[in-house]
Structure to design on (152 residues):
């Protein structure tokens, strides 16, 4: 087993139609407005940027994000990641009832030296940290889509 390799999947049910959710997730520069752990996004160009995140654990992850696939008809947003983590992340947006299901899939290898050294003892904490971050992101986006600013 490669202790520095991670696969994550999250499912967010959101109270808005697919095009509205897709548009919100497409604008990475707005993520810090509703996702507390996304601390900073610096656009490099129309298809990429640098993202700095920090969740509960006391470390930042900085990665460069490059657009891989943007398909509003299929409801897919996919990016390549490089930096403290290398790999990819994908949103798949579909209708569910009167709202939307946003499925997030991510497969990455950790490159940040400190996290690599802590790979075995830290793995359960890294998974929990990611889960907390995703839960806060869902709450934040749901609040924004419902007319609020950011959920805490």
């Amino acid at each position: 087993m490669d202790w520095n390799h991670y696969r994550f999947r999250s499912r967010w049910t959101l109270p808005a139609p697919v095009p509205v959710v897709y548009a919100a997730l497409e604008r990475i520069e707005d993520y810090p407005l509703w996702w507390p752990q996304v601390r900073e996004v610096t656009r490099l160009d129309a298809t990429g940027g640098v993202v700095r995140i920090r969740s509960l654990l006391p470390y930042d992850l900085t990665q460069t994000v490059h657009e891989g696939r943007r398909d509003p008809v299929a409801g897919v947003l996919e990016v390549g990641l490089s930096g403290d983590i290398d790999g990819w992340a994908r949103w798949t947006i579909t209708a569910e009832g009167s709202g939307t299901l946003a499925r997030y899939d991510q497969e990455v290898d950790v490159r940040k030296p400190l996290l690599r050294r802590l790979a075995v003892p830290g793995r359960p904490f890294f998974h929990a940290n990611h889960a907390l971050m995703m839960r806060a992101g869902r709450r934040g986006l749901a609040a924004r889509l419902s007319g609020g600013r950011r959920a805490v």
Notes: The mean pLDDT is 95.
